[in-house]
Amino acid sequence: MSSDFETYEQDFAVLTAEITGRIGKVPKLVGDEKKQMVANVEKQLEEARELLEQMELEVREIPPQSRGMYSSRMRSYKQEMGKLEADFKRSRIAYSDEVRNELLGDDGNSSENQRAHLLDNTERLERSSRRLEAGYQIAVETEQIGQEMLENLSHDREKIQRARERLREADANLGKSSRILTGMLRRYIQQQIKLV
Fold first, then answer.
1. What architecture does CATH give domain 1-105?
2. Residues of the signal sequence (predicted)?
């Protein structure tokens, strides 16, 4: 079950990396090249959405005790998908800005510098958010492992308490048996003394 999910996960990672690369090229293209690139990105975004749906179906098939880790991964993949769609929209707007600047005769150097600066900042933010998401996933997985360990320890404690109770009962029974045998031995000795 989880192996299918991981296969979809790998396909999603490869696909999103390709989409990210193509989105970066969209503002630099013109005419038919740009249209073709936009069409390719839209097709790949649809494929990525389908992969997410397949992954969600796989998560539903996973037993509830193991589902949490996969659900948190799904949340981060959906966020990544949303970011890709937003970046794609921005890249198309950036292209429109360049065309407008050319038509109006504006000098695009300062806006290009600002755009480059904004893109750098966006990339930095995305890297940071990916690190945060990875840290969150590790924290969730660690919490689940800790919970499982606590449950196991609780079961072991119950077993030890039951074994201790059995030992107390056995000890009490041995004490009774010892007293009975001592009493029988006394009576036997007293009878032997009377016979003598």
1. Up-down Bundle (1.20)
2. none
Which pLDDT tens digit goes with each residue over 96-112? 545 545 545 544 456 67
Enter the pTM of the model.
0.47
So where are the chain's domains?
Answer: 1-105
pLDDT at 53 > cutoff 70: yes
> What is the end-to-end Cα distance of the chain in Å, rounded?
86
80 band by pLDDT with thresholds 50, 70 and 90: very high
Q: What is the pLDDT of residues 124-173, one digit of tens each?
A: 777 777 877 877 777 777 777 767 777 777 778 888 888 888 888 888 88
